[in-house]
Amino acid sequence: MPRLLDVSDDVRAEIGDEEADRLLTGENAPGSYDCTSCRTPGDTEQERTSTVLFVGDETAVLAFAHASCIPSQVVPVAEEQLQGAVRSITGEEGAPPPPAPEPPAGQVSVPAPAGVRAAPQQAVIGVTSGLVLVDGDVRPALVVEPTGPIARPGSDGPGDDFLPLLIEQGFMPVSDVEQEPPVLPGWSVLLAMGRLHALLQPGAPGESPAAWWQAHQPLPVTDGWRNAVNRTSQVLVFAAPAGSIGQQSHEDVLREALDKAAAAGVLVAAVMPLAGT
Protein backbone atom coordinates (compact mmCIF):
# COMPACT_ATOMS: atom_id res chain seq x y z
CA MET A 1 0.00 0.00 0.00
CA PRO A 2 1.42 3.45 -0.88
CA ARG A 3 2.74 5.43 2.08
CA LEU A 4 2.39 9.13 2.87
CA LEU A 5 6.15 9.58 2.77
CA ASP A 6 8.24 12.64 1.98
CA VAL A 7 11.63 11.71 0.47
CA SER A 8 13.82 14.76 -0.08
CA ASP A 9 16.18 15.05 -3.03
CA ASP A 10 19.15 14.73 -0.64
CA VAL A 11 17.79 11.51 0.87
CA ARG A 12 16.94 10.11 -2.58
CA ALA A 13 20.46 10.86 -3.79
CA GLU A 14 21.90 8.90 -0.86
CA ILE A 15 19.63 5.84 -1.00
CA GLY A 16 19.03 5.73 -4.77
CA ASP A 17 15.87 6.00 -6.86
CA GLU A 18 15.05 2.29 -6.60
CA GLU A 19 15.07 2.24 -2.80
CA ALA A 20 13.17 5.54 -2.64
CA ASP A 21 10.46 4.13 -4.90
CA ARG A 22 10.18 1.01 -2.75
CA LEU A 23 9.64 3.20 0.28
CA LEU A 24 6.94 5.26 -1.43
CA THR A 25 5.04 2.16 -2.59
CA GLY A 26 5.14 0.72 0.91
CA GLU A 27 7.40 -2.22 0.06
CA ASN A 28 10.18 -1.20 2.47
CA ALA A 29 8.39 1.33 4.71
CA PRO A 30 6.86 0.55 8.08
CA GLY A 31 3.22 1.23 8.82
CA SER A 32 3.76 2.52 12.34
CA TYR A 33 6.92 4.07 13.80
CA ASP A 34 8.22 6.19 16.66
CA CYS A 35 9.01 9.72 15.46
CA THR A 36 12.78 10.27 15.55
CA SER A 37 12.19 13.86 16.70
CA CYS A 38 9.37 13.86 19.27
CA ARG A 39 9.49 10.10 20.03
CA THR A 40 5.70 9.71 19.82
CA PRO A 41 3.96 7.15 17.55
CA GLY A 42 3.31 7.84 13.88
CA ASP A 43 1.62 6.01 11.01
CA THR A 44 2.86 6.24 7.42
CA GLU A 45 -0.57 5.20 6.14
CA GLN A 46 -2.45 7.96 7.99
CA GLU A 47 -0.19 11.04 8.20
CA ARG A 48 2.59 12.76 6.28
CA THR A 49 5.90 11.24 7.29
CA SER A 50 9.47 12.42 6.66
CA THR A 51 12.28 10.05 5.82
CA VAL A 52 15.39 11.08 7.79
CA LEU A 53 18.71 9.51 6.87
CA PHE A 54 21.39 9.57 9.59
CA VAL A 55 24.82 9.22 7.98
CA GLY A 56 28.10 8.44 9.73
CA ASP A 57 31.55 7.78 8.31
CA GLU A 58 30.69 4.19 7.38
CA THR A 59 27.11 3.64 8.53
CA ALA A 60 23.73 5.02 7.48
CA VAL A 61 20.39 4.54 9.27
CA LEU A 62 17.03 5.48 7.79
CA ALA A 63 14.49 6.74 10.32
CA PHE A 64 11.01 8.27 10.16
CA ALA A 65 9.46 11.37 11.66
CA HIS A 66 6.20 13.29 11.58
CA ALA A 67 6.42 15.74 8.69
CA SER A 68 5.08 18.35 11.13
CA CYS A 69 8.16 17.79 13.35
CA ILE A 70 11.02 17.87 10.84
CA PRO A 71 11.36 17.73 7.06
CA SER A 72 12.95 14.87 5.14
CA GLN A 73 16.70 15.40 5.22
CA VAL A 74 20.16 13.88 5.56
CA VAL A 75 21.67 14.35 9.04
CA PRO A 76 25.43 13.84 9.59
CA VAL A 77 26.00 11.94 12.85
CA ALA A 78 29.14 10.78 14.62
CA GLU A 79 29.92 7.20 13.57
CA GLU A 80 30.23 6.06 17.20
CA GLN A 81 26.75 7.33 18.04
CA LEU A 82 25.26 5.75 14.94
CA GLN A 83 26.93 2.40 15.65
CA GLY A 84 25.51 2.55 19.18
CA ALA A 85 22.02 3.06 17.79
CA VAL A 86 22.44 0.11 15.41
CA ARG A 87 23.66 -2.15 18.24
CA SER A 88 20.67 -1.15 20.34
CA ILE A 89 18.19 -1.85 17.54
CA THR A 90 19.67 -5.18 16.51
CA GLY A 91 20.27 -6.32 20.07
CA GLU A 92 16.77 -5.54 21.33
CA GLU A 93 14.05 -4.79 18.78
CA GLY A 94 12.39 -1.44 19.40
CA ALA A 95 14.94 -0.29 21.98
CA PRO A 96 15.78 3.42 21.74
CA PRO A 97 19.29 4.50 20.74
CA PRO A 98 21.63 4.88 23.71
CA PRO A 99 21.82 8.43 25.06
CA ALA A 100 24.79 10.59 24.26
CA PRO A 101 26.96 11.65 27.22
CA GLU A 102 25.13 14.27 29.28
CA PRO A 103 26.81 17.70 29.06
CA PRO A 104 27.09 19.51 32.42
CA ALA A 105 24.08 21.62 33.33
CA GLY A 106 22.48 21.27 29.91
CA GLN A 107 25.29 23.01 28.08
CA VAL A 108 27.60 21.87 25.31
CA SER A 109 30.66 23.71 24.06
CA VAL A 110 32.11 23.65 20.57
CA PRO A 111 34.71 25.64 18.61
CA ALA A 112 33.60 29.01 17.34
CA PRO A 113 31.67 28.99 14.03
CA ALA A 114 33.55 29.35 10.77
CA GLY A 115 34.54 32.92 10.03
CA VAL A 116 34.55 33.89 13.72
CA ARG A 117 37.63 33.90 15.90
CA ALA A 118 38.28 34.89 19.47
CA ALA A 119 40.61 37.58 20.69
CA PRO A 120 43.24 36.68 21.56
CA GLN A 121 42.47 32.89 21.63
CA GLN A 122 39.90 30.72 19.91
CA ALA A 123 36.52 31.11 21.57
CA VAL A 124 34.19 28.36 22.60
CA ILE A 125 30.46 28.80 22.01
CA GLY A 126 28.09 27.57 24.72
CA VAL A 127 24.46 26.77 23.94
CA THR A 128 21.88 26.34 26.71
CA SER A 129 18.27 25.26 26.23
CA GLY A 130 15.35 26.39 28.40
CA LEU A 131 11.74 27.52 28.46
CA VAL A 132 11.05 31.26 28.46
CA LEU A 133 7.76 33.05 29.07
CA VAL A 134 7.04 35.46 26.21
CA ASP A 135 3.81 37.43 26.06
CA GLY A 136 2.15 34.98 28.43
CA ASP A 137 3.19 31.90 26.42
CA VAL A 138 5.87 29.38 27.39
CA ARG A 139 8.33 29.18 24.50
CA PRO A 140 11.33 26.93 23.79
CA ALA A 141 14.55 28.95 23.75
CA LEU A 142 18.28 28.56 23.16
CA VAL A 143 20.86 30.91 24.65
CA VAL A 144 24.16 31.32 22.80
CA GLU A 145 27.16 32.78 24.63
CA PRO A 146 30.89 32.55 23.84
CA THR A 147 33.52 32.03 26.54
CA GLY A 148 35.53 35.05 25.42
CA PRO A 149 35.51 38.13 23.18
CA ILE A 150 34.84 37.53 19.49
CA ALA A 151 36.88 39.57 17.01
CA ARG A 152 35.72 40.42 13.52
CA PRO A 153 37.53 38.28 10.90
CA GLY A 154 40.65 40.08 9.75
CA SER A 155 40.76 42.30 12.82
CA ASP A 156 43.79 42.34 15.10
CA GLY A 157 42.12 44.38 17.83
CA PRO A 158 41.06 43.08 21.26
CA GLY A 159 37.47 44.27 20.88
CA ASP A 160 34.36 42.09 21.05
CA ASP A 161 32.34 42.12 17.81
CA PHE A 162 30.04 39.19 18.65
CA LEU A 163 26.83 41.23 18.79
CA PRO A 164 27.59 43.45 15.74
CA LEU A 165 28.36 40.33 13.70
CA LEU A 166 25.04 38.74 14.69
CA ILE A 167 23.10 41.95 14.05
CA GLU A 168 24.61 42.04 10.56
CA GLN A 169 23.22 38.51 10.09
CA GLY A 170 19.73 39.69 11.03
CA PHE A 171 19.53 39.19 14.80
CA MET A 172 17.60 42.00 16.50
CA PRO A 173 18.61 43.88 19.68
CA VAL A 174 16.35 42.97 22.61
CA SER A 175 15.21 45.56 25.14
CA ASP A 176 12.35 43.45 26.56
CA VAL A 177 12.43 39.64 26.64
CA GLU A 178 8.61 39.65 26.72
CA GLN A 179 8.50 40.88 23.12
CA GLU A 180 8.99 38.18 20.49
CA PRO A 181 11.70 38.93 17.90
CA PRO A 182 11.07 38.40 14.17
CA VAL A 183 11.81 35.19 12.27
CA LEU A 184 15.33 35.15 10.82
CA PRO A 185 15.00 34.10 7.15
CA GLY A 186 17.03 31.08 6.07
CA TRP A 187 18.12 30.10 9.58
CA SER A 188 16.79 27.04 11.44
CA VAL A 189 17.33 24.78 14.44
CA LEU A 190 18.12 21.13 13.71
CA LEU A 191 16.55 18.76 16.24
CA ALA A 192 16.85 15.07 15.38
CA MET A 193 16.61 11.84 17.35
CA GLY A 194 15.17 13.97 20.14
CA ARG A 195 18.40 15.97 20.53
CA LEU A 196 19.78 19.31 19.38
CA HIS A 197 22.31 18.93 16.57
CA ALA A 198 22.94 22.35 15.04
CA LEU A 199 21.95 25.90 14.25
CA LEU A 200 21.80 26.24 10.48
CA GLN A 201 22.40 29.40 8.45
CA PRO A 202 21.70 30.01 4.76
CA GLY A 203 24.20 28.41 2.39
CA ALA A 204 25.64 29.94 -0.73
CA PRO A 205 23.19 30.43 -3.62
CA GLY A 206 22.04 27.04 -4.84
CA GLU A 207 23.50 25.23 -1.84
CA SER A 208 21.91 23.67 1.25
CA PRO A 209 22.01 25.48 4.63
CA ALA A 210 25.31 25.21 6.49
CA ALA A 211 25.93 24.68 10.20
CA TRP A 212 26.69 27.98 11.97
CA TRP A 213 27.01 26.02 15.22
CA GLN A 214 27.18 22.22 15.48
CA ALA A 215 27.38 20.11 18.62
CA HIS A 216 30.25 17.67 19.03
CA GLN A 217 27.76 15.49 20.88
CA PRO A 218 24.03 16.08 20.28
CA LEU A 219 22.61 18.19 23.12
CA PRO A 220 19.81 16.56 25.12
CA VAL A 221 16.70 18.65 25.80
CA THR A 222 13.94 18.12 28.32
CA ASP A 223 10.59 16.60 27.44
CA GLY A 224 8.96 19.95 28.22
CA TRP A 225 11.27 21.77 25.81
CA ARG A 226 10.69 19.19 23.08
CA ASN A 227 6.91 19.30 23.59
CA ALA A 228 6.95 23.09 23.38
CA VAL A 229 8.96 23.15 20.16
CA ASN A 230 6.74 20.49 18.58
CA ARG A 231 3.74 22.68 19.38
CA THR A 232 5.15 25.83 17.79
CA SER A 233 7.79 24.46 15.35
CA GLN A 234 9.83 27.54 16.28
CA VAL A 235 12.67 28.31 18.68
CA LEU A 236 13.66 31.61 20.28
CA VAL A 237 17.43 32.03 19.95
CA PHE A 238 19.05 34.58 22.26
CA ALA A 239 22.72 35.59 22.09
CA ALA A 240 24.90 37.68 24.39
CA PRO A 241 28.61 38.49 24.78
CA ALA A 242 30.84 36.47 27.06
CA GLY A 243 29.99 36.82 30.75
CA SER A 244 26.53 38.32 30.17
CA ILE A 245 24.40 35.24 30.96
CA GLY A 246 26.57 32.53 32.47
CA GLN A 247 25.75 28.86 32.94
CA GLN A 248 22.41 28.86 34.74
CA SER A 249 21.00 25.59 36.09
CA HIS A 250 17.39 26.79 36.61
CA GLU A 251 15.08 28.43 34.09
CA ASP A 252 13.92 31.15 36.49
CA VAL A 253 17.54 32.18 37.06
CA LEU A 254 18.17 32.01 33.31
CA ARG A 255 15.24 34.38 32.74
CA GLU A 256 16.64 36.84 35.29
CA ALA A 257 19.98 36.78 33.47
CA LEU A 258 18.26 37.39 30.12
CA ASP A 259 16.31 40.33 31.57
CA LYS A 260 19.51 41.86 32.96
CA ALA A 261 21.31 41.44 29.63
CA ALA A 262 18.39 43.06 27.79
CA ALA A 263 18.34 45.98 30.24
CA ALA A 264 22.09 46.43 29.72
CA GLY A 265 21.65 46.46 25.93
CA VAL A 266 23.79 43.37 25.34
CA LEU A 267 21.16 40.88 24.16
CA VAL A 268 20.07 40.01 20.62
CA ALA A 269 17.55 37.43 19.47
CA ALA A 270 15.74 35.85 16.54
CA VAL A 271 13.04 33.26 15.96
CA MET A 272 14.13 30.22 13.96
CA PRO A 273 11.91 27.45 12.55
CA LEU A 274 12.55 23.89 13.63
CA ALA A 275 14.88 21.92 11.35
CA GLY A 276 13.77 23.64 8.17
CA THR A 277 14.88 25.96 5.43
UniProtKB/TrEMBL annotation:
Please indicate which superkingdom the organism of origin belongs to: Bacteria
What residue spans carry the Pro residues bias annotation? 95-104
Where is the stretch described as Disordered? 24-44, 89-114
What is the name attached to this protein's record?
Answer: Lipoprotein
Species source reads Streptomyces lycii
